[in-house]
Amino acid sequence: MFELLRRSLNLSNTCFPLEEITHQLPDEVAPESVGVSSAQRDKVWRSVEHLYKTGTQPSITVCIRKKNKIILNRSIGHAYGNGPKDSATTPKSLASADMPMCLYSASKAVTAILMHKLAEQGAVNLLDPVSFYLPEFRQKGKGAITLHHILSHRGGIPGLPKDLPLETIYDEEHIWKLLCESKPITVDGTKLAYHAITGGFVFQRIVQKVLGISIQEYLDQHIRQPMGMEHFTFGLPEGQRNHVASNYATAPNAPFPLSRLIKRALGASFSEAATLSNNPRWMDTCLPAANLYATAEEVTRFYQMLLNNGEWNGKQILQPETVIRATQVYGRFSLDRTMLIPMRYSAGLMLGGDPIGMWGLNTKDAYGHIGLINKMCWADPNREMSTAILTSGLALVSHHVPYLMKLMHEVNKL
To answer: What are the alphabetically sorted keywords of the record (predicted)?
Structure first.
């Protein structure tokens, strides 16, 4: 009876002793060393366990840095083999806290910082029109759309053409041709509409044009290598795929009209997104808006660098002024015409709010990015904390939402 109910609700099997499916890395410090009690930290982990028990997240990895010290770095669940449609006999692999996961749209934060780095070096001016560097983009009246407009989701090109085959994203030249020929919804930056994947193609092209190298090489030179990242790449090299977390569409399908909203925002349903991202071709490809792979610890390392005014282990990755420009608010709380909810952005990051915002209660100065709804990556300078909650389940409207919100609430109490 339980198995029938689980399958009908499209959930993973959670009937495992939690201690047997939990992995903790040895880099956690005593939370008391940063003014947090062990009881507070344990309460956060219990919230992770409760989220796991919803069956919507086959694996979860969480890393939290407080005052630049790791106070939690753990995983729970299975990297693969325990999806909603898997059986008891399906080969399974336990998740580990140091396994890479696809960040989906949380990749955009990293790509945005790369563009700010490019501006810091004088290679571009973010207030310049895209067409200043790529003249072919000016078609259909897009000559005034700036790099800054696209970073802040006001560039007027929020989506690709409807009914475009998903495999088209692998054809960079064809995608670029479509973007150049597209008619914008605005050209003056007045309309906020989340750019789910289009901005990444623009920025990828910009780096290639002004530097003559790929955005992957640029990431490697200025963030990945200087910060000692093992993963942190767009796509994932074949030799690192043996323990990557698989993604699963979980919970019942979103009802209409939410299903149409998801399709419009992402260009794919959750089921299609999961299938696409588990394909080796996805991992072979560089998609700057969608397929950065990293561990939870690497994500918090990146955000800690921003909290440190661009410094990491004695290396100045970004100038302090660049961090300020990347994280300062641009515009007011506005209705996002893609996601149909009020949003607050900087030039590349999702911002919190007071009394409540994207990152919870009293998070006006917090910044970060979500990835396919359930991956939460952010930094909060007021709390001196960077957090990564990475999940492998793709679910929107489900019973797990209160548990995810509760987890973020407990994190913010640290």
So the answer is: Hydrolase
Q: State whether 193 and 282 are in the same domain.
A: no
127 and 203 housed in the same domain: yes
3-state SS, residue 142: helix
Q: Which of 4-8, 33-37, 151-155, 350-354 has the lowest mean pLDDT?
A: 4-8
pLDDT of residue 180: 98
Q: What pairing do the DSSP bridges indicate for beta strands 393-394 and 248-249?
A: parallel
Half-sphere exposure at residue 158, Cβ-oriented, CA atoms within 13 angstroms = 19
Domains of the chain: total: 2
Residue with tokens 């920025």: 203
Burial 385-397 (b: 16+ CB within 10 A, else e): bbbbbbbbbbbbe
CA–CA distance, 85 with 12 (Å, rounded to integer): 8
pTM over 0.85: yes
Q: What is the pLDDT of residues 206-262, one digit of tens each?
A: 999 999 999 999 999 999 999 999 999 999 999 999 999 999 999 987 666 566 666
- Give me the DSSP letters along 189-213: S-S----SSHHHHHHHHHHHHHHSS
Q: Which amino acid is at 258?
A: L
Neighbours of 183 (CB within 10 A): 11
What does the angle CA 278 – CA 219 – CA 360 come to, to the nearest 5 degrees? 70
Q: CA 70 to CA 100: how far, in whole Å?
A: 18
Question: Is 288 part of any domain?
Answer: yes
The helix, strand and coil proportions of the chain, stated in percent and rounded to the nearest 5, come to 40, 20, 45
b (16+ CB within 10 A) / e for 61-72 = bbbbbbeebbbb
Of 224, 255, 282, the position where a domain reaches its end is: 224
Query: Contact 206/115 with Cβ under 8 angstroms?
Result: yes
Residue 19 CB neighbour total at 10 angstroms: 7
